[in-house]
Known about the structure:
The chain is mostly helical. It is built from 6 helices and no strands. The protein has helices at 2-19, 24-33, 63-77, 86-105, 111-134, 137-153. It is globular.
Amino acid sequence: MKHISTIIGVFACLIFFTSCDDNIAESHAQQKSEKHSAQPVLAVNDGLEYLSLDNGQKWKMDEHTRTAFSEMAAFFLNSNYMSMDAKELEKIGIALKERVDVLIGGCTMSGQAHDQLHIYLMEYIPVVDALLTSGKAEDAKKVRYYLEQYIEYFE
């Protein structure tokens, strides 16, 4: 069952990344080459080193994306995940994954804000997948961290 969830997660990521018009690999390479630009880049080694602000401001998300992340954050951050056992945490992971799938299914964004969202999601989705397969408190802490990072970079 856990392998099926992982396969579904990978498949959803593939659909998401291939359904968007923007060439994310090209954008990622360009951002790598502009590593020393004036835009601040996250300095910790959390997989978000190429995530940046929009000239010092948060990236503006469309209504669908704002709603999806607002629901994920409210759902997860209002749960008492640190006192949950593995099965409960797996259920939290499944619920978050369902919300990620809704986000992906309604993707209509484009441009640099969209590219930055992809950078974020390439790190966030595997953390959610890890929680739904492992049910570990350590993975729940990572989910919290990435949800907190979302609000630092996007509005």
